[in-house]
Write a structure and sequence with these properties.
Helix content is about 45%, strand content about 15%. It is an alpha/beta fold and about 375 residues long. Helix 9 links the parallel strand 5 and strand 6. It is elongated.
């Protein structure tokens, strides 16, 4: 629940974009309607305790007069039955309120599609989600909160099939290869995962496979020291495939549960760098034909629709088995995660909303859908 609260607080750019967009859609052509609201069951319990069937036994004690002293004398002329009904409504917590509602028509459907596309959900996914929302609801009137719930339900339905924690196999060591483009948050994600697995009692080894960037090695060593996890390194500029091979041999020797291998950030349009990644996979398989058991692609949420082309390319080279999305706290493009789930169906293991260790948590589809849409359910 703590992470959900953090997610709702930090996923502000995406959620506020959809939030404000839905408000505008409903208000555009909407009309105020008077609806009766039921308050909490607590107020009903109070009413039952007071025994409303015996009005003569009820006394209302008011220690201070109302702040508004300009009461009309017309109050005295209200019929007793009307006074009784008003009192019952107050005790039960029922009250009437004007809420803006709009008829779900073709114009509203088009506006919903445009809003979802602008939140980086992608054209195909946005149109499918909007069409599903419209199914059986065309002609009915909805408030903003009701539309939010409809949208959250559709998003959750798409995401629930891909929400899967990183699987832990009996095979030891289990090799977890972490890939992604420059700046996606691979190194920090590895540090957080290693620390969390170590805390769970797993024997973890990290290999600093980004041999071209000293800062990445230093960052992993900091995480390793913090979590008491060994970090295997090689001289700057060394062959990362060779380091991966040696790290796997070391992990086998120490009977480690998990070997997590960092890799250099690479652009998906650089064929030389992508070939280097393919080489790492080939070398690992020489040592263990089943390795890597997991290839996690770390995606930066701020890249928006570009994340789709990244998934397509990395899947061809490294047989990506799951996704982790970072930086959801700094973007209005959180809808791309829905597009990824809809298009590829790859497991989403975790999402990140900050730099602290507890800012990376297993992906929960219901919590994500609520945070993204601003729905209170």
């Amino acid at each position: 629940m703590a992470f959900f609260k953090k997610l709702k607080e930090r996923l502000f750019k995406s959620s506020s974009k959809i939030d404000e967009g839905l408000d505008a859609i409903v208000e555009d052509g909407g009309e105020a309607e008077e609806v009766e609201l039921d308050q909490t069951p607590t107020s009903q319990k109070v009413a039952a305790d007071l025994n409303l069937n015996d009005q003569a036994d009820i006394e209302i004690v008011q220690s201070e007069p109302p702040s508004d002293q300009n009461l009309s004398t017309e109050v005295e002329s209200v019929e007793p039955e009307k006074q009784k009904e008003t009192f019952v409504e107050k005790i039960l917590g029922r009250r009437k309120e004007k809420v803006i509602k709009r008829k779900f028509d073709d114009d509203m459907l088009e506006q919903l599609e445009e809003l979802l596309i602008s939140s980086d959900m992608g054209v195909d996914t946005a149109m499918r989600v909007a069409a599903n929302m419209a199914q059986g609801n065309l002609g009915s009137r909805f408030s903003t909160s009701e539309i939010k719930k409809l949208l959250a339900d559709e998003i959750e339905q798409i995401m629930e099939n891909v929400a899967q924690p990183l699987p832990i196999y009996s095979k030891h060591p289990q090799v977890v290869l972490v890939v992604g483009v420059n700046g996606s948050g691979k190194t920090t994600t590895i540090g957080k995962l290693a620390s969390q697995f170590k805390e769970a009692g797993k024997n973890v080894v990290i290999a600093a496979g980004d041999t071209f960037r000293a800062a990445a090695v230093e960052q992993l060593q900091i995480w390793g020291d913090r979590a008491n996890v060994p970090v295997l390194i090689a001289p700057e500029g060394s062959d990362p495939a060779s380091l991966a091979f040696d790290a796997l041999a070391k992990a086998q020797e120490e009977k480690a549960d998990l070997l997590m291998i960092d890799t250099a950030g690479r652009l998906q349009n650089r064929t030389d760098l992508m070939e280097e990644l393919a080489k790492i996979v080939r070398v690992l398989k020489k040592k263990d034909p089943e390795a890597p058991q997991n290839t996690i692609l770390v995606l930066d949420a701020t890249t928006g629709q570009n994340a789709i082309s990244q998934v397509e390319t990395f899947r061809e080279i490294a047989e990506v088995s799951g996704l982790i999305m970072t930086k959801l706290d700094g973007t209005a493009k959180g809808g791309v995660l829905v597009a990824l789930a809809d298009k590829f169906g790859l497991p989403i293991h975790a999402i990140g909303v900050g730099e602290q260790i507890d800012d990376l948590a297993p992906f929960d589809p219901a919590e994500f859908a609520q945070a993204l849409t601003g729905s209170d359910r």
